[in-house]
Specification:
The two termini are 28 Å apart. With 434 residues, this protein is of the alpha+beta class. The chain is built from 14 helices and 22 strands. A hairpin with a 2-residue loop joins strand 4 and strand 5. The strands form six sheets. The protein has a six-stranded mixed β-sheet with strand order 1-2-6-3-7-20, with helices on both faces. It has two domains: 272 residues, Zn peptidases (Aminopeptidase), CATH 3.40.630.10; 147 residues, 2-Layer Sandwich (Alpha-Beta Plaits). It is globular, with a radius of gyration of 23 Å.
């Protein structure tokens, strides 16, 4: 696949609006299926609901059990065109970057995985094990219609030897680069608070205003400073990134000694990424209350995206939130509870194979295990004890990472090339394992 064709297909793919909600991933599935048909590879489409779809394809290896799975999701978070500099579903190229919702998370990665998968077939290479290409819907709202649905429909997925998906990149920071391979992630612990009160005219305030109850409780929640707690993968990653760097009046040696320094604690507070690796995070994302400026509503709500450390227990977390919020509001968890921490060991041949593939492209850079601060569908496979890593071999700055789920999401043309070439290298290495 030449670069011009790859970029052309990436543009076309990003123009397919699969924002979730509502999803509508079916069109994206048909787009990917067309490439499989051209190469004579049979595929199956599984539709759990109207206009929602999952794509499954397989290349046979020397053994059919314990396959390797390339996993991607086709839905994206929504985007408001009025907030962007370009049409978020226009697939526009500007100053060497391809803009569009899903550029990083994760439609371009899905395309690179597919073309690497097809390249294996074109080379007539017979892998030691079957390789499965799985592109799913619904990841952005929990994965029930996607990976969870497919695990029920295709039992062989539960027997996978290894799964590769999203979650890590090559990070450029201060002129230096390092690779992060996700082996675990924080737990999604979203919730909302609700208050009821007495309605009335805005010109006649009273002490039973639900908006005021929610505002006061929300302020207490977002003002609470969660304690730092250490998790082995976070320690390994932060030590690998920070070792030898100077922070004000000291040189970083290791995390445990750095945490004794006030200047480092201030550094953590001012570094959203490092802070999220060491603490539970709670972010207020939606406020609901009232419909008219001169009317006091009878009900108000505030929604929070909370991500807690793997070792934390959700029942204790929600109990803490209730104590912080106070008795004037109700705290209501969103989604399923998950008390267990799911982790994939990074001392494996799979990690080493990916690391070798990275170093072939980028030289002897640090390759570090990583804890994703968001959530991915890899948790479904990790819960089954299947090694599951998140990585896409593209180079991103902090600014570009912040565009993911944000405004003006984009990927450089150079990164599209890196992503494809890197996926081929990594896939060839993984498929040599018996």
């Amino acid at each position: 696949m030449d670069l011009d064709s790859l970029v052309h297909y990436a543009k076309e793919f990003l123009r397919l609006n699969s924002a979730n909600p509502p999803g509508c991933e079916e069109e994206s599935v048909l787009f990917l299926e067309s490439f499989l048909k051209k190469e004579g590879i049979e595929s199956e489409i599984f539709s759990p609901a109207p206009k929602r779809a999952n794509l499954y394809a397989r290349i046979e290896g020397k053994r059919s059990d314990m396959p390797l799975v390339l996993l991607s999701h086709l839905d994206t978070v929504p985007a408001k065109p009025e907030e962007w500099d370009v049409d978020p579903f226009g697939g526009e190229i500007k100053d060497g970057f391809l803009y569009g919702r899903g550029a990083i998370d994760m439609k371009v990665q899905a395309l690179c995985q597919l073309f690497a998968f097809l390249e294996i077939r074109k080379e007539r290479f017979i892998p030691e094990k079957d390789i499965i290409f799985l592109a799913t819907c619904d990841e952005e709202t929990g994965g029930k219609l996607g990976v969870k649905f497919m695990l029920e429909k295709k039992e062989i997925l539960s027997e996978a030897d290894f799964v590769l998906s999203e979650g890590g990149f090559i990070i450029e920071d201060g002129g230096q680069i390092h690779a992060q391979i996700s082996v675990t992630e924080k737990k999604v612990s979203q919730f909302f608070i609700k208050a009821k009160g007495k309605g009335g005219h805005g010109s006649t305030p009273h002490k039973d205003n639900p908006n005021e109850k929610v505002i006061e409780a929300a302020q207490r929640i977002i003002s609470y400073k969660w304690p730092i707690k250490l998790y082995p993968v976070a320690i390994k990653y932060i030590d690998g990134v920070m070792k030898g760097k100077r922070i004000e009046n000291f040189e970083y040696i290791d995390l445990k000694s750095a945490l004794k320094k006030k200047s480092f604690l201030s550094f953590v507070d001012d570094s959203p990424h490092i802070n999220a690796l060491l603490r539970n995070t709670v972010t207020c994302t939606i406020l609901k209350g009232g419909e008219k400026i001169n009317v006091i509503p009878v009900e108000a709500e505030a929604y929070f995206d909370a991500r807690i450390l793997p070792q934390e227990r959700q029942n204790k977390f929600y109990s803490k939130i209730r104590r912080i919020a106070g008795k004037k509001v109700e705290v209501i968890p969103i989604g399923e509870s998950s008390e267990r921490a799911y982790y994939s060991n990074y001392r494996t041949r799979y990690f080493e194979a990916i690391a070798n593939g990275i170093r072939e492209l980028f030289g002897p850079i640090p390759v570090l295990p990583y804890m994703t601060t968001g959530a991915t569908d890899l948790r479904y496979f990790r819960s089954l004890g299947i090694p599951a890593y998140g990585f896409f071999p593209i180079v991103l700055t902090k600014d570009e990472i912040m565009r993911m789920h944000g405004v003006n999401e984009r990927i450089s043309i150079e990164n599209i090339k890196r992503g494809y070439e890197g996926m081929k290298n990594i896939l060839r290495a993984l498929l040599s394992f018996k």
